[in-house]
Amino acid sequence: MLHQLAIGSGLLVLSVLLSGTIFLGLELVLGRFRLWLLRPPLRLKASVMLVLVVLLALGMITASVWLWAAAYLFLGVFDTLEPSLYFSLVCFTTLGFGDIVLPLEWRLLSAMNAANGFLNIGIISTITLEALRRVRKMQLDGPGD
Length: 145
Known about the structure:
Elements lengths: L1 H31 L1 H5 L3 H34 L5 H12 L14 H35 L4
Helix pairs in contact: 1-3, 1-5, 3-4, 3-5, 4-5
């Protein structure tokens, strides 16, 4: 049991670090394109930023799902990539189909995988709202700092 908790905790930390790195990248993009965002058409550019944020969020989810799938493969929980990836995605999205289940000695990982997905949903919502808030605030405040 303790090895499952240790491995799952490590994967959760890595996933959060991935999310943080992607968020930092978004911060850098917002800063780099500040002047562009302040020129008309403002709403169109806010929409472009929304699309960028959603794509980054998709990248964040994809990276975390692949991280868990690679761990399942490395640990020998699954023999091939397809069931590892499928199981990770089903857990991450908290669908929990139950058509594939982990062996008893690894079942805690599935709950931690789902908790990671649930956590990422909150992170994605926060990043999306914060990015749009910052873009609109920059646009409304104008070119000055």
